[in-house]
């Protein structure tokens, strides 16, 4: 009975490969994506023409801005860390609190957020109609410029922002030498310690919510999922973030409280897993985390 | 034609039905396509709900697989699929979109799904936590079992606790109270002897206990709210709706089908009727084409659209020449416009018209057609005209022949007795209205019976034909000759005024028989006897006129044949006398039987002869002396007056020159001019020529014109008088006071002299009336500047009266009777001496 049980657990954890590689590309509507790309880099989306999507999602810098909190129009500072736009398409929900169902829904958030772009869609549509966008939209969309079409075009472009061929993906695909032995050990530890329970799947995370501070209370200004559901048990539940390109997306956690991977791994072990972890183990896991950085897509270049 | 109407109607309804049928079939097809789309859509919805149910089962399984590692990507994909299917169901499902129940069902489903999703998310978090916790507990358990830092008993409790928790993996009930007890024991042990691993073990176990409670909650939620039953309800609802629709649609399709069959049957039925009618019409067509009648059909503009062969045969036209033309190409123009107007009127009123045409063939010959023309109506709308015509030329001609025979004598082709009787009767009506005269001549061939009896009927007939020809040639066009019977002919004469005119005609007729008649074998001398009766002098009605003419004819026979007699004896006498006169006149022309005598006109005061009136005299070798009042009118009638007038004029002029030589007081020669002369074109030229020829100045010539002659035509008369005056002639009005002259006109005439008529002078001074008239005339003449000449002064008293009343001149037996040239020359010589 006992042995059966043990075998069951091990099989469960070790032999079923819990991480899947990113595909080389996914199908998109090229025309819409091209239009979306133009919008993505255009500050016209913000009320005073100072902020574009790319302002906070620097595609050359991990898909975020490397700041703890981002700055919007008039230098206003936000209160949450910009997540990377790379591979966002694979997230099951968008935003830290998961309030957007998909990328299309997500686009509206920053555009209308008063501390980000601070636009209103009605005004924005009118504004775009006075520019060359009018013709471009008319070519791609039957109904021309609308809120939905703006969001759709940008979302279509964001679908192209995936980073395939990370060393670890190559390893998963069978290239046993794609990662170092230390990284391999790190991956074993990653599974062994139970990180894998939350960070798995195609995006190594990004497919469930979990509590910030499972084992112990951790202070946090933001309340996560509670902000959406207003259920007491949802307090401090955040979307588990993707670990893809994690080495490029410092600072970490929803409030950007840690600058280094060392710190955040140590924090995770203590507050989320409630485990003792050695520096050697941390090093190995961090090494593994570095193997998750993929190739930047061609569409990321301006 | 009625049939034809029906046929057209049928064709229309067949077309209509066919259209309906096509529309019906198209509708049916469209409806079937729609039904198919319905079914397709239902299948899609059904599949969507089925998938939802399968996904829900997956969700349920997922929620029961606690403490198992699961790649959440998979469940996330299921969630996405579920949501997109739900959205698909939410978008308009046209059959049910209006249904509140459906919306309610969807709402319930969505709500239950949201609860389920919440459970799933909750499960994911809890499961992840539990999973790594249990895994860590396994490690800790292993470490603690082999650790020497804790006692045996504690180790056994740790192991036991872990095993209790492990039961959760295999879904066994776990003894929570046991675990809680163990945790208390372990906490006591930890307090005695702190160990990090044991501490961790306790913390994780406590947290896991919380997770297990959470899973219990999820299970309870699962049992409470059944998404599955909501989905089943949804599916059942969709199925019901679908079935209802299918039943309705099946019914409608069946109805469609039945209707289509009915229409098709109707179509077949109608087509059969149409075919039957067509065959029948073909029969009619053959009948029409081969009809003995001419049949013409025109459109409403009366353009010919159809003619049968008979028409071509009758008219000589080809079909191409006729079609498209108006039927008036056959019109001969013989009938009056009123006839066509009546026809047009009847047809315009939509009535049938019947009548007879006199039409013209292509070669111009005429033929008669009895026609009936029928306006053809369809649905109260005029569509064409049908004319059915029968050539009745032969019949008409035969009828005419019979009619001709009935009214004409076959031998001479002259009107027969009944014809002339009718004719006379008709003419009498008109004549009595117009107060005209009609003469009836009854002519009988003398001794005809003898010729007929002795020489035979053929000769008699030949004789009759020639006699009728001769008589006819003598007559004017307007006079009607008729063979009354046997050898009797009758002539009706109109347009005459004087009875003696008839006598002339009779004489002419008698004259043409002076030459013998040559028959084939014989030369026959024939004479006629003619009796004349005159309307209205003798009688007013035809029968009596015939009777009297007959009587007159026998009178002529009694007179010795070869003559004519009026019914009234005196008429006969006058007529014969007049004819004798004419005859004598004709013979006298060119002889010296006519001569001129002169009566002097003298000034009453001085007794000087100032003028002469030339008077013509006729000493007929056969009739003796005839007075001018007898023969001048006859001369005028026969036109001899012109010649005679000029003879007198010339003679007077010639003599006047001689008279002037012996009588120097002589100023004028007065010459009477007849109206016939006056109104003759060449008159002025002729007398001017004579005047210049004889050397008499025109101012010495006094033209005496009777008052009544001028008054007959005042405008023309005045013009002529003015012309004469311009030529220098003097004008004298003769017999003044006997006519009805208007004095106002009189003063316009260029007159030099007024002659006071003898009838007034005869009774002066004894008759007061005549005295007054004579005085008035003289007073009038004075005021107008005319000179007066009194005629017929026969005694001293008369002359004295006139002298006393200042009449300028006079003439009469008292002073001097008219004398011949030589006598007058002597008289003048005596006077002048």
Element string of chain A (H = helix, E = strand): HHHHHHHHHEHEHH
User: What's the CATH C level of the largest domain in chain A?
Assistant: Mainly Alpha
Q: Using the CA coordinates, give the radius of gyration of chain B.
A: 73 Å
Q: Tell me the CATH superfamily of the largest domain in chain A.
A: Cytochrome c-like domain
What do we call the CATH topology of the largest domain in chain A? Cytochrome Bc1 Complex, Chain D, domain 2
Residue share in β-strands of chain B: 15-25%
CATH fold name of the largest domain in chain B, please? Answer: TIM Barrel
Q: How many helices of chain A?
A: 12
Number of strands of chain A: 2
Mean pLDDT metric of chain B: 86
Largest sheet of chain B: 8 strands, mixed, barrel
Assign the CATH architecture of the largest domain in chain B: Alpha-Beta Barrel
Mean pLDDT of chain A: 89
| Sheet with the most strands: spatial strand order of chain A | 1-2
Q: Kindly name the structural category of chain B.
A: alpha/beta
Instruction: Flag low-confidence runs of chain B.
Output: none
How far apart the termini of chain B lie comes to 116 Å
Number of helices of chain B: 28
Pairing-aware structural class of the strands and helices of chain A? mainly alpha
């Amino acid at each position: 009975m006992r042995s059966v049980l043990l075998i069951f657990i091990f099989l469960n954890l070790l032999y079923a490969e819990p991480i899947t590689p990113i595909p080389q590309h996914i199908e998109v509507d090229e025309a819409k994506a091209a239009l979306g790309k133009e919008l993505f880099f255009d500050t016209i989306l913000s009320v005073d023409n100072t902020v574009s999507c790319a302002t906070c999602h620097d595609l050359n810098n991990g898909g975020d801005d490397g700041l703890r909190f981002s700055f919007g129009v008039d230098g206003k500072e936000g209160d949450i860390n910009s997540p990377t736009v790379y591979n966002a398409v694979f997230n099951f929900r968008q935003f830290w609190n998961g309030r957007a169902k998909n990328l299309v829904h997500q686009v509206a958030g920053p555009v209308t957020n008063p501390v980000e772009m601070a636009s209103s869609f009605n005004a924005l549509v009118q504004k775009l109609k006075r520019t060359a966008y009018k013709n471009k939209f008319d070519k791609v969309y039957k109904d021309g410029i609308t809120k939905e079409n703006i969001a759709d075009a940008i979302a279509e472009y964001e679908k192209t922002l995936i980073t395939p061929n990370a060393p670890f993906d190559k390893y998963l695909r069978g290239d046993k030498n794609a990662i170092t032995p230390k990284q391999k050990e790190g991956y074993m530890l990653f599974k062994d310690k139970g990180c894998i329970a939350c960070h798995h799947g195609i995006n190594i995370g990004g497919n469930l919510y979990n509590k910030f501070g499972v084992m112990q209370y951790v202070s946090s200004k933001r309340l996560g999922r509670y902000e959406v559901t207003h259920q007491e048990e949802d307090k401090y539940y955040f979307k588990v973030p993707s670990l893809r390109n994690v080495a490029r997306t410092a600072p970490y956690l929803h409030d950007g409280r840690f600058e280094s991977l060392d710190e955040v791994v140590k924090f995770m072990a203590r507050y989320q897993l409630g485990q003792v972890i050695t520096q050697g183990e941390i090093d190995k896991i961090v090494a593994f985390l570095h193997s998750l950085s993929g190739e930047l897509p061609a569409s990321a270049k301006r | 034609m009625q049939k034809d109407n029906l046929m057209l109607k049928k064709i229309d309804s067949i077309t209509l039905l066919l259209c309906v049928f096509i529309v019906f079939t198209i509708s049916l097809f469209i409806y079937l396509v729609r039904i198919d789309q319905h079914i397709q859509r239902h299948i899609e919805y059904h599949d969507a709900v089925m998938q939802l149910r399968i996904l829900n089962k997956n969700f349920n399984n997922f929620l029961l697989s606690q403490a198992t590692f699961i790649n959440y990507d998979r469940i996330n994909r299921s969630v996405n699929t579920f949501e997109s299917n739900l959205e698909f169901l939410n978008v308009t499902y046209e059959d049910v979109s209006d249904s509140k129940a459906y919306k309610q069902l969807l709402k319930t489903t969505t709500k239950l799904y949201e609860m389920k999703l919440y459970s799933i998310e909750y499960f994911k978090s809890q499961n992840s936590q539990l999973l790594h916790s249990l895994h860590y507990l396994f490690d800790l358990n292993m470490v603690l079992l082999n650790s020497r830092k804790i006692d045996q008993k504690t180790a056994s409790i740790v192991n036991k606790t872990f095993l209790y928790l492990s039961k959760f993996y295999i879904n066994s009930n776990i003894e929570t109270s046991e675990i809680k007890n163990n945790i208390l024991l372990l906490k006591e042990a930890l307090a005695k002897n702190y160990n990090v691993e044991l501490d961790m073990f306790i913390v994780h176990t406590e947290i896991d206990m919380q997770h297990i409670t959470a899973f219990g909650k999820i299970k309870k939620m699962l049992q409470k709210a059944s998404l599955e039953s909501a989905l089943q309800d949804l599916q059942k609802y969709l199925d019901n709706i679908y079935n209802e629709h299918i039943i309705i649609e099946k019914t409608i399709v069946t109805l469609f089908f039945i209707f289509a069959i009915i229409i098709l049957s109707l179509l077949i039925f109608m087509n059969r009727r149409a075919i039957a009618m067509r065959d029948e019409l073909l029969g009619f067509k053959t009948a029409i084409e081969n009809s003995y009648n001419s049949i013409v059909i025109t459109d409403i503009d009366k353009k010919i659209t159809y003619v049968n062969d008979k028409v071509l045969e009758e008219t000589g036209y080809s079909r191409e020449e006729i079609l498209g033309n108006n039927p008036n190409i056959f019109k001969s123009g013989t009938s009056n416009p009123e006839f066509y107007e009546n026809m047009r009127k009847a047809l315009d009123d939509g009535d049938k018209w019947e009548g007879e045409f006199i039409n013209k063939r292509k070669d111009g010959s005429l033929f008669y057609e009895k026609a009936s023309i029928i306006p053809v109506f369809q649905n109260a709308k005029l569509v064409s005209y049908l004319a059915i015509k029968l050539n009745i030329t032969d019949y008409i001609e035969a009828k005419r022949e019979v009619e001709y025979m009935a009214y004409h004598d076959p031998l001479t082709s002259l009107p027969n007795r009944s014809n002339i009787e009718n004719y006379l009767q008709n003419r009498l009506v008109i004549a009595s209205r117009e107060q005209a005269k009609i003469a009836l001549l009854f002519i009988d061939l003398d001794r005809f019976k003898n010729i007929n009896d002795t020489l035979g009927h053929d000769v008699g007939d030949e004789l009759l034909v020639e006699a009728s020809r001769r008589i006819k040639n003598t007559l004017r066009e307007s006079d009607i000759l008729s063979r009354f019977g046997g050898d009797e002919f009758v002539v009706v004469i109109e347009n005459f005024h004087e009875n003696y005119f008839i006598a002339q005609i009779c004489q002419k007729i008698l004259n043409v028989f002076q030459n013998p008649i040559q028959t084939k074998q014989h030369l026959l001398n024939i004479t006629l006897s003619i009796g004349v009766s005159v309307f209205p002098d003798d009688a007013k009605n035809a029968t009596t006129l015939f009777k009297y003419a007959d009587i007159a004819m026998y009178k002529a026979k009694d007179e010795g044949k070869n003559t004519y007699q009026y019914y009234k004896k005196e008429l006969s006498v006058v007529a014969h006398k007049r004819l004798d006169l004419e005859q004598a006149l004709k013979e006298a022309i060119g002889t010296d039987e006519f001569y001129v005598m002169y009566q002097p006109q003298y000034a009453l005061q001085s007794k000087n002869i100032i003028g002469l009136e030339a008077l013509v005299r006729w000493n007929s070798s056969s009739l003796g002396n005839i007075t001018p009042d007898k023969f001048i009118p006859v001369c005028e009638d026969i036109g001899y007056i012109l010649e005679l007038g000029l003879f007198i004029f010339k003679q007077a002029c010639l003599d006047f020159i001689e008279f002037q030589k012996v009588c120097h007081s002589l100023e004028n020669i007065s010459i009477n001019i007849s109206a016939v002369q006056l109104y003759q074109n060449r008159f002025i030229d002729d007398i001017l020529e004579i005047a210049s020829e004889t050397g008499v100045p025109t101012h010495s010539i006094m033209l005496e014109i009777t008052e009544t002659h001028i008054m007959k035509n005042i405008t023309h008369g005045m013009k002529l008088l003015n012309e004469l005056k311009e030529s220098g002639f003097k004008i004298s009005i003769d017999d003044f006071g006997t006519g009805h002259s208007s004095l106002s006109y009189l003063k316009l005439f260029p007159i030099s002299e007024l002659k006071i008529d003898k009838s007034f002078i005869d009774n002066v001074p004894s008759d007061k009336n005549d005295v007054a008239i004579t005085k008035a005339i003289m007073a009038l003449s004075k005021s107008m500047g005319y000179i007066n000449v009194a005629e017929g002064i026969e005694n001293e008293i008369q002359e004295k009266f006139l002298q006393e009343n200042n009449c300028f001149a006079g003439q009469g037996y008292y002073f001097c009777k008219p004398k011949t040239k030589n006598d007058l020359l002597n008289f003048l010589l005596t006077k002048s001496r």
